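User: Sequence in, structure out. Go.
Assistant: Echoing your sequence, followed by the structure tokens.
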Amino acid sequence: MRIDYALRQHDQWYKGDGVYGDGPEFHWDYYNSFVIQPYIRTILPIVAAADKSYAVMQEKFDKIAARYAVILERLISPDGSYPAIGRSIAYRCGAFHHLANEALHQRLPGDLNPAQVRAALAAMIQKTLGARADFDEHGWLTLGLSGHQTGLAEDYISTGSLYLCATAFLPLGLPAGNDFWFLPSEPWTSKRIWNGENMTADGALKL
């Protein structure tokens, strides 16, 4: 009952174009990536395998998850930064949990080459974890997004919770010969666009 309620409630909170509401109201944050979509990806296939009545929900979610992966990849700028919007921004590269998780499960949509996702995630990880001020004198992460920025941390953010950033490393679970590692590096979408390449226009998901 609890699992069914959680899945159906999120289905009701779907706002469109690959994004669920973080509750009945829409909030512009990364909670679709921090927790919502990665854990639906974990839970729903198990439930759908046990009860065929969830098949329609699974099919819908696969389309939503693919679209949101595309959105996340496009949010990574050419220098690896991304919009600092919404709460819990101090989770740093954990904001891309969903994209990393879809790569791990080999569920990236066809218009996302695994090599470009690898390059995008690597640039973003370096941007959010590469500054000396990201760590204190004992080697622990500091509160912030780019360095020590206590003003960016809500009162529920602690040093321990900062390590949600580790979810960006989920593709490490892929074998060495997987295309994610094996294919030559490719520029990601925003890098190609801002380098002047003529790209296909983005389009919203219509279910």
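User: And one key feature?
Assistant: The chain has a mean pLDDT of 96.
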